Amino acid sequence: MIDLQVHTSASDGNWTLENVLRAALKERICAIAITDHDCVDAWKPSTIFPTIKRLAPVDRFETFDDHYIINDLQVIHAEEITCAYRGFEIHLLGYFLCGSMYKDSELEMHNRAMIEATKRRAQSMISKLQQAGYLLEWNDVVRPELPQMIRREFIADKLLERNRARITAELKAKAITSNVSPRLVSDNLIGRDSPFYASVPEQYLAIRGRHPPELKDAVEMVMYCGGVPVISHPGRYKFLASSPLADMPLTGETSKVSLSTPAGKIDREQLVRDFKQASRGLGGLEVHNRKHVLQQIPIWRDLARRYELLVTAGTDFHGERDDYLGALVENGPAGIEMVEKLALAADHIRRIVR
Ligand SMILES: [Zn+2]
Q1: Which backbone phi and psi does 63 adopt, to 5 degrees?
Q2: Cα of 208 from ligand 1 centre, angstroms
Q3: Which terminus of the chain, N or C, has less C-beta within 10 A?
Q4: Please, where are the H alpha helices in 42-151?
Q5: What is the mean pLDDT of residues 268-290?
Q6: Cα-to-centroid distance, 137 and ligand 1 (Å)
Q7: How far is the CA of 314 from the centre of ligand 1 (A)?
Q8: Distance 117 CA to ligand 1 centre (A)
Q9: How far is the CA of 3 from the centre of ligand 1 (A)?
């Protein structure tokens, strides 16, 4: 079993890397990729080594430039980058990123900029909250052992930790009676319409003059780090023209089905063509994603086959149950084959870009 899309608390997952690895070992998954959003905390040596210590006893632990191994589990260095495609938001996965090539790369600059910008945002939100009498210090959100990127949910989490009674009463006064969670606080107390909200200052973020980066630039950023670019959850983009799913056959040949293109929508085949060109034919499509409806799988598998792109599978785990990890590909061997094909593509990419 494999799982090539897993998020941790370093970005927007609910589980720490330690919990994810523990579950993956318990579920006997053979390969996972930690794909935190615009962030590689999960495969930084400063994160991995203390985590392995806490996981002890571990029979085998080896690190490589683009992955590490714990017992029988391979952990692939990866990331999910938010980027832009023809004005729409799209996510790009990068697999087998090399630590040595990542150093001082554009991708590292992009990730650093995200951290810096979220820190600036946190500073201004904290000072607004302090002025209103809430207990919250800089040290509550920035410490070496905490995630580098400070997401709004994380500020909400710490804010709630220190001001639970006051916040519960305030939400109650607004007739919000559901369980007080960081998510609820993030949406209702420090959300976009709130006086405590601050946006992420964009001047820190522009790479090649753009934020978010263009898809083709993000593809280059990944390949420059020796990684394989893969379009994340292609079935989830509402901007793609979709044919009525009711008309879709559940299995079998789908290439003959003509796809309607409503005004303002982009043909999915156009995206695949553009991506193939940007990745020089060495990328892939995440055909199997837990959030894809079943009918979409043959459509994307067919596009991957026709455009000779790799097929990958990931649950898009954000901290659900242990058994949510993995278990996406119908048969086990196909899963590990995907990983082997990705590794081969990564080798090929490194020969081109070096
Ligand atoms: Zn995504």
Answers
A1: -115, 145
A2: 22
A3: C
A4: 45-55, 99-102, 106-131, 138-141
A5: 94
A6: 31
A7: 11
A8: 20
A9: 14
Q: What are the sequence ranges of the domains in the chain? A: 2-105+225-353, 111-204
CATH architecture, domain defined by 2-105+225-353: Alpha-Beta Barrel (3.20)
3-class SS at 75?
strand
> Do the beta carbons of residue 300 and residue 287 sit within 8 Å?
yes
Whole-number Å distance, alpha carbon 1 to ligand 1 midpoint, is: 21
Helix axes 106-131, 152-173, angle to 10 degrees: 30
- Whether residue 327 has pLDDT greater than 70: no
Structure tokens at 80: 């999910």
Report CA-CA distances (Å) from 208 to 12, 173, 215, 321, 354. Answer: 26, 47, 12, 39, 21
CA of 205 to the centre of ligand 1 (A): 19
Containing 93, the helix (H) or strand (E) segment is strand 88-95
- For the chain, the 3-state helix, strand and coil shares in percent, each to the nearest 5, are 45, 15, 40
Cα 221 to averaged position of ligand 1 atoms, centre (Å): 17
Mean pLDDT of 129-136: 95
**Residue 271 confidence (pLDDT) above 50:** yes
CA distance 266 to 90: 12
Interatomic CA distance for residues 15 and 192, integer angstroms: 25
Pairing of strands 67-70, 73-85: antiparallel
Residues 97-128: tens digit of each pLDDT: 999 999 999 999 999 998 888 899 999 999 99
For the record, the structure tokens of 184 come out as: 């609820």
Q: 63 C-alpha to center of ligand 1: Å? A: 27
C-alpha 290 – ligand 1 centre gap (Å): 12
Kindly tell me if the per-residue pLDDT of 1 is higher than 90. Answer: no
